[in-house]
Design a protein that fits this description.
By secondary structure, the protein is of the alpha/beta class. Strand 18 and strand 19 form a beta hairpin. The radius of gyration is 23 Å and the shape is globular.
């Protein structure tokens, strides 16, 4: 079967793709930029069953590049992590363009993953998801809708936010929405359902709720998470925290963006509980409990098998150019700090240190100063440092890396190029290269800043006194550091 998998570089899609190929299907993956597709994660035999095509479902003309001989299509596109205030409009436009494309194909079934929406008054996020569902129903193809509760899995937004709250705060003053109930489902079960309804005629033109074994309040979810981690936590709910204050609190404490925090908090006023479990007769699976999902998730984290992360989506979709195409930092009109250090170790040893930068390991020097900079960034609406990284020792183009974005990462070329997503009066790049010079291998570390107006220039000179010790020692420690 030939399958169109939208969202193939996203949190769900990255996990679904190997299952589809393993089942013998040919998969077409539309992506906005091929550099974000994990070609290096798959062998040649696997890639023979995968076709990656650049297009954007917000640009209807670009969809002309997609093939018409598709049998089934998965619709896994959403704009929840977008900073755009009009995410519902973006989602509607994307869905309409998708339906127009499907009309020109032989697609027999569309499989859509949305959110449980059984309340009368829905949050903006759930209303948008339901609106997308209605748009997809206008397609000639048969529609299978899976409405999911909160998904628990390594790299998932809900999981990472819960983890941030539990592991950082021994005592929490929490809003009353923490008493709302939900039915969390493990990512493993979600993939089972997505595979189970494929070409299953009993699922055609039907809508199903999917959830895990347990119905819990958000407070119970936090406390059970603490139990799994062996932590003692106390939660006090107070009635005075509004949605706006709760969103701000979540934004400051966790790795989420403010827009995502606002959407999640707004959705928590709705109970997301399975109302119709008829899916169990069509796709009988063994549902995991919440604790089982957590234990399975931490097993994958400990084995460094985090396949995908919600942080992989760009924090600002409104820029007029694609950062992944900026494979060279600019030079004209920029302030540039270049530091070159020869070393006697093998280049592979040093590149391993570079590939582990940020996240839990930190930035090799002045980590307190980096954290302060991240905190200040959060205060003015930036992403801060808490996004961390998808994997402790693997980097790919498009990855989030604290408040940087990976533009280019090639161990073979000994090169890593980062773009700053922190709030700045200008644009900033940080590049690491290893090249031979005068018969010795050298680490070349380049910080580039393109100021925006007078404030940008003033900012550069204000932070210039810190550049010397930070960049100098960071480069030296990258060369000398040896993992224990």
């Amino acid at each position: 079967m030939k399958i169109l998998l939208t969202g193939s570089t996203g949190y769900i899609g990255r996990r679904l793709l190997p299952e589809l190929v393993k089942s013998g299907h040919e998969v077409v993956c539309p992506v906005r930029d091929k550099r974000r597709f994990d070609f290096e994660d798959f062998d040649d035999e696997f890639l023979q069953s995968v076709q990656v095509i650049e297009c954007d479902f917000l640009d209807s003309k670009s969809l002309e590049r997609l093939p018409k001989d598709i049998d089934t299509a998965y619709y896994l596109i959403h704009s929840l992590t977008s900073n755009s205030k009009e995410f519902s409009k973006l989602e509607a436009t994307t869905a309409k363009n998708f339906v127009t494309y499907i009309a020109e194909t032989r697609v027999d079934q569309i499989i859509y993953l949305g959110g449980i929406a059984n309340d009368q008054e829905l949050s903006d996020h759930l209303s948008s998801r339901q609106n997308v569902e209605e748009i997809l129903k206008q397609s000639k193809a048969k529609l299978t809708v899976l409405r999911s509760a909160i998904i628990i899995g390594s790299g998932g937004a809900s999981f990472e936010i819960i983890r941030d709250l539990v592991e950082k705060l021994p005592v929490m003053l929490a809003p009353k929405w923490l008493n709302s109930r939900c039915q969390p489902i493990g990512i493993y079960n979600v993939i089972e359902y997505l595979m189970g309804v494929l070409a299953h005629d009993q699922s055609y033109d039907r809508t199903f709720d999917i959830g895990g074994k347990d119905i819990l309040t958000y407070k119970q979810m936090l406390l059970q998470f603490a139990e799994v981690r062996g932590l003692k936590r106390y939660i006090i709910t107070v009635p005075v925290l509004t949605i706006k204050l709760s969103s701000l609190w979540l934004y400051l404490v966790t790795s989420t963006s403010y827009r995502l925090a606002r959407n999640l908090v707004d959705s928590m006023k709705n109970e997301v509980i399975v109302g119709d479990d008829s899916i169990d007769a069509i796709v009988p699976i063994e549902k995991l409990s919440y604790k089982q999902s957590l234990e399975r998730t931490f097993m994958r984290i400990n084995q460094k098998q985090v396949v995908s992360s919600w942080k992989d989506s760009f924090s600002n979709p409104d820029f007029s150019y694609t950062f992944l195409q900026q494979l060279e930092a600019p030079k004209h009109g920029c302030f540039i700090d270049v530091r070159t250090y020869p070393f006697d170790r093998t280049p592979d040893e040093v590149i391993e240190n570079i590939w582990a930068i940020g996240g839990e390991r930190g930035w090799y020097y002045g980590n307190v100063l980096w954290r302060i900079r991240g905190f200040l960034d959060k205060l003015v609406g930036g992403v801060g440092l808490r996004r961390g990284r998808r994997s402790p020792n693997d980097l790919k183009g498009g990855d989030a890396l604290d408040f940087w974005r990976v533009l280019y990462a090639s161990k073979e070329e000994y090169r890593l190029l980062l773009f700053a997503e922190m709030k700045l009066p200008g644009d900033a790049w940080l590049e690491f290269r290893i090249k031979p010079q005068a018969g010795k291998n050298c680490l070349i570390q380049t910080a580039t800043f393109r100021p925006l107006g007078l404030w940008g220039r003033l900012y550069w000179f204000l932070v210039l006194p810190l550049h010397g010790p930070i960049f100098r020692n960071m480069a030296r420690n990258l060369i000398s550091y040896q993992a224990k």
